[in-house]
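Quick question, first post here. What does this chain look like in 3D?
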Amino acid sequence: MASFSFSFGDNHLLRLCSWLFMFLLPVAGFASDRQVDNGAFQKGERFVFRAMYHSRFTGNVTAGDASLTIMPETVTVDGEPTMKIVGRANTNNFFSMFFKVENEYVSWFHEEDLAPVRFHKNIREGRSRRNADARFDSDKGLVYSRDTVIESPAFVQDIISAYYFARTFDMESARPGDSFEVTFYHGGKVYVSRILFEGREQLTTELGTFNTLRFKPEVLEGKVFSQPYPMTLWVSDDENKMPIRAESGLVVGRARLDLVQFGGLRNMITSFVP
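> Answer (accepted):
Ran it through. Tokens below.
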């Protein structure tokens, strides 16, 4: 995120939000045709997050907000019916005086197999403005952008659709220490990550206490997995797999996203601890 130390822009926000958006998508073994049993989410679902920054100099400071929204209607793209997901991240008025961020990420994907069809991002960070588009051909294993065509694994996800695909996975038999490799497309490249499942724990936020699944991602750099920006993710331990919290260490201080509002869930919340 440019030179601003809070890191709420595209680069560091990508490290925080993209791990939130895709926390356990396996890389290997996808056939050329797949069907996904989605019992986790539905059209009309919405999550709102508060973005916080903490350091010993500032204490806890609210820096902005982020959201994930599934549009309530089916959207036709390239002649195909899709689910449309919109992710947004914005700094608040105070942080905008130093470095304003208004970022939007949009994913269109098939409802049957959750394979992405198109992805768009519109970035405003300080004086910088840029946007990018990608079109996915899962059958051919190709991703088209404005300037390039690259080969990709079958059913590679974008950073938004990957999170929703991951929510369909059954974690009942997962044990601490299990790991999942992930692939996602961003910025003209395909990235590989490994997500470590650390276990189950109760987490208390302003919404209350939840039974959660805790994950820690690592980035593949060359042939070595590393953790340049230590990240921890908590998702609800129920059929919804709601993102409850994402926290990351920064060069100075820490950044955190906390779920503060939600609606349109497909299932009852059974992870809440009264």
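The first strand starts at residue 46 and ends at 55.
Confidence is low (pLDDT under 50) at residues 1-32.
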